[in-house]
Amino acid sequence: MSRGSSWKEECGVFGVWDHEDASRLTYLGLYAMQHRGQESAGIVSCHEGLHLSHKGLGLVGDVFHEPELLSLQGRMSIGHVRYSTTGQNLLANAQPLLANLVSGPVALAHNGNIVNSKQLRSGLQDQGAIFQGTNDTEILLHQIARVPSSDIVECLKKALPQLVGAYSFVLMTHDKLVALRDPLGFRPLVLGKKMNEKGQWSPVVASETCAFDLIGAQLVREIEPGEIFWVDKNGEHSERFAPKSINTQHAKCIFEHVYFARPDSIVFGRSVYEARKKFGRWLAKEAPVDADVVIPVPDGGIPAALGYSLESGIPFEHGIIRNHYVGRTFIQPHQSIRSFGVKIKLNPQSAVLAGKRVIVVDDSLVRGTTSQKIIALVRQAGAKEVHLRIASPPTIGPCYYGVDTPQKSQLIAALQSIEEIRKFVEADSLAYISLEGLFAAFGEAPVPGAKSFCAACFDGHYPTPLMDGALSS
Ligand code: AMP
Questions:
Q1: Cα angle at 155 between 247 and 75, to 5 degrees?
Q2: Contact indicator for 368, 426 with CB cutoff of 8 Å
Q3: How far, in whole angstroms, is CA 31 from its chain's centroid?
């Protein structure tokens, strides 16, 4: 499947039960998780058994204003932010998706990628199903609709085993809020509690804990891989839709910790900020170099650069200043725009760099375009030497589970040696943290003993069968 296809999605999901400010809390939760998706945003609330919805293309703050939030009445609400590589900026793909089933209305928000979606979709179309958008999330709605039960949890338990891949789902019916995570637990999903105006704890769910921080909710626990959690008028419930294996084999995405999640979130039970700092420390041990200053590529490289500086004793400085009013360079669809983006976004300062031997630390190197531009700018600012250190291993494989990495032909480390990459980015030296080092820093058993994480982008071991022609891309 090529990069231009519709099924690579980075997303954030949110849900809240029984709160007078349900849609407003959802808005804030999405706002905190804007980094997980910038293409579209949507909120569905439930008022007197009916679903009210507002979705739009763009950032949360652009899509929602006071009138929209006022119209989203009700004590229960779910929301979604989405970025996909599709290039088709279709409002039909904006989530939460809505459907009217025999049992009533259902709204659905998804983070992840179903790797057998093409097969499932064509099977459903053969049976007469009509799809509104091109995303893989609609498939679950069709599957639920085909189960002869009015109980959404029963429907889900029957439908979910057909899905292969990564999914954290939040659903809302007229009387239930449901949250679930695929059996391998690729994408994060956390359960929290927020005091409502009646002095009762209302359950909230979100992709990341930074959403809880903003709304003043407390983290309770993770939704477990293979768990279906729901809340209704009888209280909170939890069941497994996939058996817990004895040698618990999970595939939590290590890239959430490397790059994707916000550093102030707790993901898979660990602080993202601390993890990144540890990656930096380990990198300093594995790849030391004599230098005068350590600078991060902002913002992603900051915690790792701090770790590198602490471990090496070389001073940390903000040598590159970021313009915060420019979007992430990576999300620009065309190479030319992306390259330009680096220049308008990051400005190296001579006051820190002139005449210095500089260590530049970034969280990852994908195509190499960003590093190449940054190193050129750091040299223009007067640096004497530039040593590039990457706080993740070489990215050699595309992600089929919900992170937007390009296809193999564009991953520089899949095609070139480290020395060739060094020449391409024009660094005096280049080193990546090793995969073993990444997991050791993280406190996990070294690969291949590590059973908890998916590191397919770094080691090429995909934890599920890859369908839909994924391997051909
Ligand atoms: P590249 O120019 O392709 O090597 O991009 C590397 C830069 O993109 C690094 O500074 C990373 O912080 C950032 N990056 C890595 N992965 C992603 C991603 N999936 N989405 C957006 N940015 C990313």
A1: 100
A2: no
A3: 14
Ligand 1 neighbour 255 (Cβ under 6 A): no
Tell me which CATH code domain 275-324+341-443 carries.
3.40.50.2020
Residue ranges covered by each domain of the chain? 11-248, 275-324+341-443
**Separation of 393 CA from ligand 1 center, angstroms?**
13
Nearest CA to ligand 1 atom 11: 364
Catalytic-residue membership of 11: yes
Q: What is the pLDDT of residues 116-159, one digit of tens each?
A: 999 999 999 999 888 888 888 899 999 999 999 999 999 999 99
Other beta carbons within 10 Å of 235: 8
Return the pLDDT at 410: 93
Architecture of domain 11-248: 4-Layer Sandwich (3.60)
Domains 11-248 and 275-324+341-443 share a fold: no
CA of 67 to the centre of ligand 1 (A): 36
Q: E-strand spans in 233-369? A: 235-240, 252-253, 266-267, 270-271, 293-296, 320-322, 346-348, 357-362
Best probe residue, ligand 1, of 299, 340, 370, 422 (max atoms within 8 Å of C-beta): 370
Tell me the best of 343, 362, 366, 422 to mutate to test the pocket of ligand 1, counting ligand atoms within 8 Å of each CB and taking the most.
366
Out of 191-195, 217-221, 399-403, 428-432, which region has the weakest mean confidence (pLDDT)? 399-403
In single-letter form, the type of residue at position 162 comes to Q
